[in-house]
Design brief:
Strand content: 15-25%
Oligomer: single chain
CATH topology of the largest domain: Rossmann fold
Helix content: 25-40%
Largest sheet: 6 strands, mixed
Number of domains: 2
Distance between the termini: 38 Å
Radius of gyration: 18 Å
Number of helices: 9
Bound molecules: adenosine-5'-diphosphate, magnesium ion
Structural class: alpha/beta
CATH superfamily of the largest domain: P-loop containing nucleotide triphosphate hydrolases
CATH architecture of the largest domain: 3-Layer(aba) Sandwich
Strand order of the largest sheet: 6-7-8-3-9-10
Length: 253
C-alpha cells in the first residue's frame, strides 16, 4: 500500500481549472518532485493533500485511508507535515526555542504555556537540531541566522511531530544554487533514515534531477508525465512543454 495515493483529484477556481483529474502515488522514504511552470497547479495540489483546499472531485488516501475533506489539523495529526516559514514574531526566539515551540505544538500544548515551559524538551529539540546540523547554533536568535540556516531550522520544526509524509512547496525559494542542493540532500538523507515520504516542488532542475527519486510533471493542471528523473528528462512531451524556458537544459553548477 502506498503512503500517499492521489486518485483523480480536480479543483477549479471560478472558470480556472487549476488541477484536472490528476493521479499519482508516493512511497515511504521516497522523494517525489512535482514540477511544472508557474500556475501549473502545484500549490493547489499540495493544499488538497494538506487539507487547506477540498478537491471538487477525486480522493486522497494516506496509508489507504481517505483523508479528502478533513481539516488541516486532522490531516496533520494523521502524519502529514509541511514546512512553514518561521513567523516574524518568533524570529527573536533562539533556534532551539523555535524547535521547542514546534515540539509543544506536536504535544498539543497551548501557546500560553510557553512562559512556564521554556525548559520543555530542550534535549529533544537539540537532538532534532543535530539532525539538520544546526546544534552549534542552537542558542542564537533566528533573526541572526543566514538564510540557508533558517531553512534547516524550519525543516527541524517540521520533523517535530514525526510526519510520515512531508510536503515542501518551494522549500529552496530564495536560496543560492549550492544551498539548494545541500538542503535537498539533507532532506533526502532524513527521508531515508525516517522512512518519511517527501513531496516537494522545485524550480532548479539540478536539484530535481539530482535529488528526486521520481518526478511528476504538471502542465496547465494536468499530469503530463511521471517517472524516474532520467525518463522525465528524455520525455519528448516534457521537453516540448519546457521548450524555450531552457529549464531542462540547465547546466550543472
Ligand atoms: P503553481 O503552484 O504551480 O504555480 P497554483 O496551484 O498556485 O500553481 O495555481 C494554479 C492556477 O490556479 C493558477 O491559474 C492560479 O492563478 C489559480 N489559483 C490558485 N489559487 C487560487 C485561488 N485561491 N483563487 C483563484 N485562483 C487560484
Ligand atoms: Mg506554487
Amino acid at each position: 500500500m502506498s503512503l500517499l495515493q492521489i486518485e483523480g483529484i480536480s479543483k477549479a477556481f471560478g472558470g480556472v481549472q487549476a488541477v484536472q483529474n490528476i493521479s499519482f502515488g508516493l512511497e515511504a522514504g521516497e522523494l517525489l518532485a512535482l514540477i511544472g511552470p508557474n500556475g501549473a497547479g502545484k500549490s493547489t495540489t499540495f493544499n488538497m493533500v494538506g487539507g487547506q483546499l477540498v478537491p471538487d472531485s477525486g480522493q486522497v488516501r494516506l496509508n489507504g485511508q481517505p483523508i479528502t475533506g478533513l481539516a488541516p489539523r486532522a490531516i496533520w495529526r494523521l502524519g502529514v507535515g509541511r514546512t512553514f516559514q518561521i513567523a516574524q514574531t518568533f524570529a527573536s526566539l533562539t533556534v532551539v526555542e523555535n524547535v521547542q515551540m514546534a515540539l509543544l505544538s506536536a504535544d498539543r500544548r497551548i501557546f500560553s504555556w510557553w512562559s512556564r515551559a521554556s525548559a520543555h524538551r530542550r534535549a529533544d529539540a537539540l537532538a532534532l537540531l543535530a539532525q539538520v546540523d544546526m546544534q552549534v547554533q542552537a542558542d542564537r536568535p533566528c533573526s541572526e541566522l543566514a538564510y540557508g540556516d533558517v531553512k534547516r531550522v524550519e525543516l527541524a520544526m517540521a520533523l517535530a511531530h514525526e510526519p510520515q509524509l512531508l510536503l515542501m512547496d518551494e522549500p529552496t525559494a530564495g536560496m543560492a544554487p549550492g544551498e539548494r542542493v545541500a538542503l535537498m540532500q539533507l532532506t533526502r538523507r532524513l527521508a531515508r533514515e525516517r522512512r518519511m515520504g517527501v513531496l516537494f516542488t522545485e524550480h532548479s532542475m539540478d536539484v530535481v534531477f539530482g535529488q528526486a527519486d521520481r518526478v511528476a510533471v504538471l502542465v496547465r493542471g494536468q499530469l503530463l508525465a511521471q517517472g524516474t528523473p532520467q525518463s522525465i528528462r528524455d520525455d519528448a512531451r516534457v521537453q516540448q512543454a519546457y521548450l524555450g524556458t531552457g529549464l531542462l537544459l540547465e547546466k550543472q553548477k
